[in-house]
Structure formats: C-alpha cells, structure tokens
Amino acid sequence: MNRGFVFWGGAFLILVLCTACTDMNLGQDPKPHETRTDEKTGQLELLSLPDTALQGAHAHNDYLHDRPLLDALSRGFASIEADVFLVDGELLVGHNLWQLTPERNLRRLYLDPLDRIARQNGGKIFRDHSELRLLVDIKQDGAEVFEKLQQQLREYPDLISSKRDGEYRTRAVRVVISGDRPVAAIQADGEQWTGIDGRLNDLDSQLPVEALPLISANWSSEFKWRGKGEFPDDERTRLNEIVTRAHRAGRAVRFWATPESPTVWKELAAAQVDCINTDRLDQLRQFLLNGTATGGGTRPGPGDPAGETAARLESPIERIAILGCIRQDRPIPALARYRDLNAQLHIWLGDNIYADTTDLEELQKCYATLAAHADFAPLRATGIHMAT
Length: 388
Hints:
globular, 27% helix, eight-stranded parallel barrel
C-alpha cells in the first residue's frame, strides 16, 4: 500500500478551500429576480417570479443553496426537495443530523415563504398555474415525522393540495413524501395532505394518482450508462418503458443519483422524464431553455475523465476535498458528509483501497468492490475525482 501520506488515526481528512467571490464574476447568470427581507421573519422574499414554470427541473437537496427555495423558484423550478428530521418536536431541514440548526426548519424555509408568495400571487406560485411539487425526504422516524408534517400542513389549507369532502382539490403546492415513507399511514390519511413517492415496483399500482403521484428510482442501480459514449439501446428502451408505464397512470417520473451531465440530461428529456435531478440550477435551466449547458460548470458522472471535465469548467474550482484511507470491505458512512459539501474536485491521496498484495487481478477486484460500494457510488457521481 502507498503510505506516502499518513492520515492521523487512519481517519478521513477533508480540506475545503472557499474563496471570497463576492466581487468576482464566475460566469453565473445574474439573479433573475430581486428580493427583499421580511422585517418580521428576516426571510428573503421574491418580488417577482417567472410567469411559466420550468418543466422537467428538480432542485435536489435545495436547502444547500444560498437561498433555499428562492434560488430554485427564481429560476422557474417547480419541483423542490427538502430532507427533514424530527428533533424536539420540530421538523428540521438537512441531510445529516450534524447539519441541523433550529432556525433551519421546514416551516421557516419552505411552508411560510410559499404561503406568502401564493397569497401575494392570487393563490398560485407561477402565473401559468403550475402546481409546485415539494418533495419531503424523511431521513428517519417516518411515522413520527409524518404525524408532525400532517399537523403543520393542516395550517395551510389554501396552499397545500388535499382532499376535502371526498374531492381532491388542487392548490399551489403538492407535498410528496420520500425517504423513510410510512406508506400505510399515508394511505390511511383520508384528507390526502401528502402523496407517496413510489418506486418501480409501484408502476402497476392501483392507487389513485393523488395518493401516488410520483415514481422514483436510483439511476445507478437501474442503468450502467453514465453519460460517456452512446446510450445503450437496451437501456434507452428500458428508460422509455418506465416513463410510458408511469405516464399511462398519470404519474411523474424521477431518478436520483443521475450524473450531472448534459449528455444524460438530453436522454432524460427525450424520454420525457418529469424531474431531472440537479444541484446546478443555472446549468440545468440553461439546458432546458436552450438545449445547452453553460454558466455553472459541469459536475460529471464517474465515466467523465477529469481532463475532459476541467476543460468544460467555466468557473474556478473553489472547493477541494482531500480523502484517503478507505476500507472497501466495510461501511463508509462518512462519505455522505463529503458529498453534502459539494466539492468540485476530490483528490484521493493514498490507501484508496486496502489490499496487501501486488497481484493486479486482486487489486482490480478491490477497486471493483469500492466502485460498487453503496456509500461510495453517490460521491463518485459528483465533481471531478483524481487519485494518486
């Protein structure tokens, strides 16, 4: 093993370099809408919105942006995702427990701002009356979170789509539950304040679309293609079949863990996938409007070589993660934290696998084990990766 770099205690080491960019033009589109600060809540509010929602755009882990909700809305995104935990009776927003703070809660970041915007805009978010999808990803304790979420949603009867007197009434926002989904409890909710984010085995479900409005799947589990080379015909056929079956039942389709690549986006759009996951709002917006992707740089899939990606980046690299000391045969939960940091460049400095051998075939097996690792694969699909 290469021990040219020693990591204290065998732990991971990450270095995130953040440059002060307030006075720099990084090639990003200017903020398309002005904001103001609400004097009572301190929350930024939009003064205007696009007239038409940007169909196909889904803001993955929206709360990580500088302005949760507002950055996505100002670009026309009509599908937005927020991860939640129940802590001390409050629904806090974040991907991991260590990220949570009391002021970053679902009501303050999403429900209250959406309610204000809808009230100021005649009961809708966008003027074309597009319903906004708020995907609430429950990270743990699904039944308890669902009960608390129901309580909160009932306070917004003019904002949230729900069933009343046996009739489903569409409002400005539809809430869909993903993650740790208490399916039986959601189905038993006669008022249907939330819908279920289904899986591929729900494609033939007999549930009404109000109860099961969305079908989601892990791209890396269903498809081998990562955007390099031609999309295999058999995989394109399978993608089209999934979308066709879902649409036949009136359900939308979403894939998570898709490579941040215009090549992949093109195939998803051609197949009429309803929610294209992205952390790069400007880039996907540009792609959906003009068929090109500029402004935010490309976050590649694992099949995209670092040299090709670097040539396409239009803004400086600001965040670099330094990693190493991976045991490919054990759980690696810390990698989820690294993914949440949204580093643009990952540098693996040594002991990237553990294998006390000079046998090339054995080394290849170890690297294959790491590549398929459930904790490693999501990180591998983000940013540029370079290894020593």
